[in-house]
Write the structure tokens for this entry.
Amino acid sequence: MIQKMLADMLSSGSDKKVHYQWIDYDEISSYAKIAVVAGEDQNFPNHSGFDLQAIEKAWNQSKKGKRLRGASTISQQVAKNLFLWSGRSYFRKALEAYFTILIEMIWSKQRILEVYLNIAQMGEWIFGVGAASEIYFHVPASRLSRQQAALLAAVLPNPERYSVTKPSGHVRYRQRWILRQMHQLGGSNYLDEL
């Protein structure tokens, strides 16, 4: 994702500015951490990089002709966003699996989540929770509220289509769903063992 944005910017001669600010794990709101886990990968603390149940569910839905849904874990998304390009080829997926295994072997879950929260695209030219919290809510990432964190997590599936500043009905529905999931998982306590 980052590579695509930078390539677009360089090839178009655009004067758009990339907004980015690294935030250490301990300086990120616990709500932001649990919101992305609730919205993107609820088994994150327990799997080794791949959520086999989610993969099986996605596979079964696609066999029934239903819309293909994503089954990528946070670890897989970190691998893709750090090392790879967007696309759906088997070769790219194989590389993603390789890098996911390496990431899971080398980094702690806390580090994986920290990197994810710092590199995820959260809007046009906006990367990471640090830049997003300042631009959208005028607060540091450490002070994001439950609602703000859930709204940021709600746009993650497609930050070029969904908007934090003008959330559609779908984004608001997803925000409410994420808030319920955050509660059902036990809030930030769910991530205490990372």
